[in-house]
Amino acid sequence: MRARVEGVPNFFCFCNHVTIVPPLRALLESPDLRPVVISGFEPLDVLQSVYMVLGQLAQGRCEVENQYTRVVP
């Protein structure tokens, strides 16, 4: 509302209520399960997530791990 009052033309808000349960279920039930890491969006989150996926590959594991524990339970 403030952006509109101040005449800011390039301010947008999008609210997306998204659930990731169906895609995760499909991944887990897939016969060719791959390493999966739930990641945050900050550069260090992404870097740690790549490290975690590579660790799974090096150890011969295919699991779902959560890197983004500070937000995603």
Give a topology summary.
Layout: H1 2-5, H2 21-29, E1 36-38, H3 43-58, E2 64-66
Structure description:
This protein is mostly helical. The protein has one domain (2-66). The protein is 40% helix and 8% strand. The chain has 3 helices and 2 strands. It has a two-stranded parallel ribbon. Helix 3 (43-58) links the parallel strand 1 (36-38) and strand 2. The two termini are 33 Å apart. The model has no long low-confidence stretch (mean pLDDT 88).
Please sum up the structure shown.
This protein has 73 residues and is mostly helical. 40% of the residues lie in helices and 8% in strands.
Record keyword descriptors for this entry:
single chain; mainly alpha; two-stranded parallel sheet; 3 helices; 8% strand; elongated
What value does the average pLDDT take? 88
- Name the strands of the widest sheet in spatial order: 1-2
Give the termini distance in whole angstroms.
33 Å
Main sheet record:
2 strands, parallel
Shape: elongated
User: Over the alpha carbons, how many angstroms does the gyration radius reach?
Assistant: 18 Å
The number of domains:
1
Indicate the percent of residues in helices. 25-40%
